[in-house]
Amino acid sequence: VQLQASGGGSVQDGGSLRLSCVASARFFVNLTMGWFRQAPGKEREFIAAMSGRTGLKIYADSVKGRFTISRDNAKYTVYLQMNGLKPEDTAVYFCAARTAWGPRTTLKDEYNYWGQGTLVTVSS
User: Fold this and answer.
1) Strand 118-123 relative to strand 9-12, pairing
2) H and E: helices and strands count for the chain
3) Any residues with CB less than 8 A from the CB of 93 and at least 6 apart, and which?
4) Is 74 strand, coil or helix?
5) Is 77 in contact with 25 (CB distance < 8 Å)?
């Protein structure tokens, strides 16, 4: 499975961006899709994930109410709508995929496939 993320850029504090990630997988609906981010000098952290079959979603506390994950299974694409961006959201954002949904969905080591990352910069 290959993942291609796009949509990053530079915005002002309070701005919005929408990230997209296209998967090269005809069984996309069976994949749990996640978004992670990594700021300079920090560990890669979980942001959001969504089950393909059930539509269940989970978010990190730091982005709840500001970010929304969605997907279009017909287009093999997952999105991350980011509103109310803050300077602390500055990071490289990665999409990832795994073949299961469960309690370990927030753990980066549980994901089998990763995109190349897209940079989001939020200035104050």
Assistant:
1) parallel
2) 0, 11
3) 5, 8, 19, 35, 36, 37, 47, 80, 117, 118, 119, 120
4) helix
5) no
108, two tokens: 């980066």
pLDDT for 16-73, tens place per residue?
999 999 999 889 999 999 999 999 999 999 999 999 999 999 999 999 999 999 999 9
3-state helix, strand, coil in the chain (%, to 5): 15, 50, 40
Please answer whether residues 20 and 9 qualify as being in contact, where contact means their C-beta atoms are separated by less than 8 angstroms: no
Q: Which residue has the tokens 């393909």?
A: 52
* Phi and psi, residue 16, nearest 5°: -130, 150
Instruction: Please name the residue that has the structure tokens 């929408």.
Output: 18
